[in-house]
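Researcher: We're teaching a course module on how sequence relates to structure. For the next exercise, students receive a sequence and then see the predicted structure as C-alpha cells, so they can try to spot secondary structure elements on their own. Here is the exercise chain.
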Amino acid sequence: MAAFAAPLDVADWTLTAAAPVVVPRGLRYAGTPLAALRAQRATPAQVRAPAAGVLRSLVPAAGPLAGRTVLEVQANPFAMRRVAQTIAFGAPTFYLALDAGATLAPFAAGDFVAAGAPVATASGVTILCAGQDRIARDPALWSATIAAAIASAGADAGTWPAFAAAVATQTASGPNPPVLLLDHTGAPLGDEDVELSAGSQSAVARLIAADGGDLQRAVARLHALDPAQMPFASVFGAGAPVRIGAVPASGADLELTRLEDGAGASGSIEVTPALRHVALTDLARWFAPQYANDGLPATFAPLADYTRGNRVTPFVNGLEYYADLLEKLKRAADAGPAGGLHLVGGWQTVIDAKLARRDDDETAAERPVTLLEAVTLLSDEGGAARVLSPQFFQFDSQSTLQLAEIIIVSLLVMGLLRGASVDAIRSDAGGMVVLAVVFVANAALVPWIISVNGRPVEPNVDAVDELAALDRVESEFGPFPARIEDNPLSPPLGGFPWDTLLTLQRSFGFYHQKFGVVRAGSNVYGYCGGIDINPNRLDDARHVAHGPYHDVHARVEGPAARDIALSFEQRWGRDGTGPVAFATPQAADLGTPGDVAAQVARTYYRPAASTRALPWAPNGDRTIADTLLQAIDAAREFIYIEDQYFTAAPEFQDRLVAKVAGRQIGALVIVLPAIGDQPFGEMVRSGFIADLKAADAGAGIVRIGYPRRHYTVPANDTRASSGRLVLQTPLPSSAGFDPTVVLGPKSRLPGPPFWVAIEGELMYVVNESTAPNPSPMTARIFDVVRGADTRLVTGGIAPLGARTREHLQGAAATVVDVAGIYVHAKSTIVDDVFLGIGSANINRRGHYHDGEIAVYSVPQRLKAARSNPVAALRRRLWAEMLDLPLATAEPLLEDPIAAGRLFDRSPLQGNRFTDIEAYPIHLMQDVTGGDGLVLTLLNTALGFQIAGDVQDLYDAVIDPTSALELDP
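Model: And here is the predicted structure for the students to work with:
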C-alpha cells in the first residue's frame, strides 16, 4: 500500500500557487507560514488524505482561514519508514483548508487514515505541507521532494508522481515560476531589500510582506510602479544568468543557500527556473563587532568580526574532548620540532590525572593519557609548549592579617566558585573546610602563606612548576589585573567587606578561559569551551560517573583558529616568559576546511585606571555579551541555553523576558544545575526564573530545569557494606514536624547527608539528630525530610515528593544515590542556526569582568541541510537531557518546537530533565543567602555577622562587574 497519495484527482482541478498561509493555533505547526497550493473546480469532488497518518480537524476563529474547516494529517513515519528517512525535511504534515460548503467524511480526532482515503467533498481547498524543519517550500518543491524520496526508497509510488507532475506543470512551469526567498528559519522573507542582477543590469528589489517572499511578485509590482527603478519585468526576463545578493550600499553580508541542491554561497547566489528557493541571513545580525577593536593600538592585531570557511566540531562531555586533545597532542609530538601547544587549561589544570584509557597493546606506551605525559612526549620529540593558569591569590601587602582572610577567599573563590558540589565541601576531608581549620589553627602558617603571595595553596601550582621543568616548556601563572576599584558596584573601601573581612585581597577577577591551540606540522587545531583539564569531567552521555558532569567544548579549524592563537599570544605577551612556542598563523594559511562562519569572542574588564588596562583590550571587551544579545534578538523559533549559574545582568534578563512576553519564539529551554554553586546567586537566579515564568503566563514557551540521574546504588566507597540497613524502630506514615529515623547497623551507615529508601519510600537524611537514641550501641538516629518536602517531581502547581507510608521495625532500608547531573556548560543554540560554545557563564563576571572566550558560529547552508551541524548538536544534547537513545530519538527531535514538549515528560517516566522547582529545598541551604553553609562558617566559626551585607559581598566579590555593563 502506498504511503502517499494524490489528495485530488488532478485532471479535474485547477492548481495555482497562492500566497503563504500561517498555520492556525491549535494545530501542530501553529504559527508557521507555509507556501500554499490552491485547488478549485466547478463542482464538489473528493478530497483525499495525502499520507497515511493521524487525522484531526479545526475551525479557526480568526486569521485568513477563519470559519473554514482545516484538516491536519500528520504522516506516520513508522508506516513509511524508508520513505520518511529519505525525505529531506523529515516526515511531513499536511493541512487541507476546505472552502465553505464542504462536507466531511465521518471520523474522530486522532483516527488513523490511510493514504488516499476520502476525508471530505469540496469544490475548493488550500493545501499546505510542513516538514519537520518548518521551512516553507512551494508546492512544486515539496511534492517533487516526496516523489523523489518514494522513488529512492523503492516504495509504491501510487498516484503521487502524477500529482507532483501536475503541481509542477500548473504552478511552476513557464518563464516566470515563483522565486521564493526565505529567512534563516525558512519563513518567507518580508520587508527586505536584495539586489537582483543579470548581465550588466542590476536593481534593488524591495520585498514587502504582501509579496509572501516571492521575488517574482516583488519584481512585477516594482516594475509596474517604476520601470526605470526596476528594469526587470520578471526575474528571468533578461535571459542572462540571474544572481540574488546583498544590496552593495546596505553593508549586509549574506549567507545564502539553495534548497533544491543544497548549494551555499556568500554574498550572492545564482537562481534558475529549476533552482529558485533561497534561504538567507545577514551575518552582521548574528555577530557583533569586536568590541576591543575600537581604539585598539596599532601595535596589536585586531580579531576578525568573523571568518568563513571554518569547521567547528563540538565535544559533548569531557571524555570526547580529552580523547581528541590527547590524539592531536600525539600528532604534535610526531611532528617533532614542528609540533607545539599553547594552552590555557582553565580554572584548574590537573596535569597528572588520567584523561583517557590506555589500551593493552604494544603501542600503549606511545599514547599519552595525562596532560603531563602528552607534554612530556611533545618535549622529548623536540616540540615546545606554553601553558597559562589563573592565579587566585594576589595579596596587596604584608599588613596585619585579618583572622579569616585566606579562609574567606578559599571558601568563596577557590571552593564554591570552582564548581565543587556543596556535599563535597561539607564532607571531603581534603576540602576547603579542613583547609580553613588548618589556617585558623596554625598562626605561623598564615603569615608565611601571605609572604609568598599564596603560592603554596594555589590550585594550579603543580601545573606551573612541573610543566616548567620540561625542556622547551614554559608554564606560568596569569594574575588577573582587575581590582575592586574597577567594579562600579563595589562598596566603599571604608565599609563592609573591605574593613571587616578582606584587607589584603583586593583582586577578585580571574582568567576563566579554557582554550588552546595545538600545532602538528602544518595543521593547526584551536580549542575553546567550558571544559577544564580536571578528572571530575570524566563523564559521557550515560552519566554513570560517581559525580555526573555535563559540559561542552569545541575544536576549531580554519581561519578562526588564528584568533584563538592570537588570543593566547596576547595573554602570553603579558604574563609569560620568553617567546611563544610558535608564531600565530595567518588566517589565509589555515585553509577553508569547512563552511561555517565563526567568531572568536571574548570578555575583558574595563579598567578604571589606564595602568591596569590590558594592551589588547584597553577599553575592555564585551563581544561575548553583545553577540549573545544579538542572537537573542534574531531568534524566531527557539532558544536553548545550558549554563552553570544563570545569574544574568539586567540587560540580558530584560532582553530574554521581552522575547518570551512578546511571543517572538515558540520555545525557550534552559538547562541548569539543580542548584548554582555561586554563593548567594540563588537570589538572582530564582528571581530571573520567576520573571521568565511570569512572562510565559501559561503559553508553554518556557521550560527551565536540571538533569537528574535515575536512582542508583552509590559506589562502595561511600556506602559502607553496600549501604544495606535495617529500620531499628517503627516509622509511622506521618512522623510529625521534625521526623527522625533510627537506622543500623552502625558499620554500614555513611555520614549525612544521604538519600535512603525504606521499603521504597525515598527520604533525605539531613543530619545526625540530637533526639534520644534508643539503640546507641548498634544504631544512629537521623533528622530526615519526608513526603512532599522531598520535592522530587512537579505536579501541577506544587512540587510533589515521595508518598509516605508506615514502616515496621526491621524494614529494609538502602542508601541510594539521587544525583543531579552537574551542568557546567556555557552553550547556546538559536533556531538551529546559531551556536555558541565558550567559558563565559551568564552572569556579570562572564559578560563584563573576567577573562573569557567563546566561539560563535553559523553554518553557511543555515538549517536547510539535513546535515546541519547545529541541529545535530541540539539533537544530541536533547537526547542526553531527555535520556533517550539518540538513534531512536533523532526523528522525534527534528522539529525543535514539537520536541520541546518532551521536556514536560515526568522523571518518573524516564526523563532526566526535571523542573527546576522540583528540587529539595533542604539541599539549597548553601546558596539561598542567609542560613546556608557559607554564612554558617563565617558567622559561627569565624565570629562574623554578615547576613545583612549579603548584597555587598555578592556585588563586590562573588559576581563583580565593570563599567562595560553600563554601555548601551
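Model: If you want an answer key for the exercise: The radius of gyration is 31 Å. The first strand starts at residue 14 and ends at 22.
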